[in-house]
Amino acid sequence: MNPKSPEARSRSDDPFEGLNITSLKILDTLEARSPCPHCGKSRMYFCYTCFIPVSQLAGRIPVCTLPIKVDIIKHRREIDGKSTAAHAAILAPGDVRVYTYPEIPEYNINDDRTVLLYPGTDAVSVQQLFSGKKKSEAYTQQILSQLPAGYNVGTLMTKTLSVDCDDLNDIYHVRKWPIERVILIDSTWNQSRGIYADRRLQTLPKIVLQQRASQFWRHQKGSPRWYLSTIEALHQLLLELHICAWGRSETYKAPLTLHYPIHRSNNNHDSCVPYDGQYDNLLYFFKFMYEKLHTLYSHENMLAYKRPMT
C-alpha cells in the first residue's frame, strides 16, 4: 500500500472521541520514576510485572468492575513493558488475571460459558453467542473460500468473520450474559499460534470480534490494521457483549459505537442497562500513551498506522 494514499493517511483526529474515560491530568503530574511498592523496581506510572500503580497514583486512577472474569495468557517472550495486558490487570484488578505461558489454568471442557477469544476455525461471533444461530457455511469454509490459491490455514488470522447487518441491530434483552469467563492470548500473532495449539485451550469454544481499526502504536510487520492490542480487544469484546445484551444508551454517542442499536427509553425491559461507557476506562492508560506518543511523533509517519484494513 502506498503510504501517501488516503487509506494510509485517513484517521480520526481523536479516536477516543465520545468515550467516557476519566481525566488523564493526574498522569501528567508525574515527572520522574519511582520504586514499585512491591518489587522496588523503577517505574513511571505503574509496575507492569506486579500490576499495581506507583504510590503517587494509588487510589487516584479509575477502577473498572467487569461482568465477566478475564484470563490473559501472555507469551513468555512478550516484552512486559510493551504489552497492554498490564493495563487490564491494573484497571480491573478484581476481574483480570495474567498468566505467563505455559502456565494456564485448568478449564472445564464441558463449560460452554468459558470462551477463548481467537479466530479459530470453529469460532463464532458475539451475536451468535446470544442468538444460538450458526452460519449455514462453516467459518473455515467461509474464510478459505476467500483465500487466493497457495494460501494456508495460517492465513485465517488475516481474515475476520462477517456478520449479517440484521444481527447487528438485535438487542436480546437478557438477564444474564451467555459467558462468564474469557481467555485472551497476549502475544504477537506469530507467537499466538503456539499457545493456541495447547490442548488446554483447543477444546474451549472460540469467539471472534467485529473489525475495528487499532490505535496501537506497536507495529507488527505484515499484520492488518484491525489486529487489536490486548486492551483494545478486551474493550471491544465487552462493548459487543453489553450492546448485544442491552443495547446502547440514547445519550452515548461515541463514533466507535454509532452503528450499534440504541435501547430506547420506552422499551419495557427492566433487566436492561444500556451501554454508556461502562468499560471505557479500560483504555485509560492506552489513551494517555497514545496521546503522549503523538506529541513526539507524527501519526502519518508511524508504521503501525499505515497498515491496510484488509
UniProtKB/TrEMBL annotation:
> Which reaction does this chain catalyze?
a uridine in tRNA + S-adenosyl-L-methionine = a 3-[(3S)-3-amino-3-carboxypropyl]uridine in tRNA + S-methyl-5'-thioadenosine + H(+)
- Please give the biological process terms from Gene Ontology that the record holds: tRNA modification
List the subcellular locations: Nucleus
Q: Which InterPro entries match?
A: DTW, tRNA_Mod/Golgi_Maint
User: Into which EC class is this enzyme placed?
Assistant: transferase
Q: Which residues form the DTW domain?
A: 43-298
The main location is nucleus
Q: What Gene Ontology molecular-function terms does this entry list?
A: tRNA-uridine aminocarboxypropyltransferase activity
Q: Is Transcription given among the entry's keywords? A: no
Q: Does the keyword Phosphoprotein apply?
A: no
Q: Which UniProt keywords apply?
A: Nucleus, S-adenosyl-L-methionine, Transferase, tRNA processing
Which PANTHER family has this protein been placed in?
NATURAL KILLER CELL-SPECIFIC ANTIGEN KLIP1, TRNA-URIDINE AMINOCARBOXYPROPYLTRANSFERASE 1
| Residue ranges of the TM segments | none
Q: Which organism is it from?
A: Parnassius mnemosyne
Q: Which GO terms describe its cellular component?
A: nucleus
Q: What's the protein called, per UniProt? A: tRNA-uridine aminocarboxypropyltransferase 1
Q: Which residues form a coiled coil?
A: none
What protein family is recorded?
A: Belongs to the TDD superfamily. DTWD1 family.
Instruction: Please describe what this protein does.
Output: Catalyzes the formation of 3-(3-amino-3-carboxypropyl)uridine (acp3U) at position 20 in the D-loop of several cytoplasmic tRNAs (acp3U(20)).
Tell me which Pfam families the record gives: DTW
Q: What is its EC number?
A: 2.5.1.25
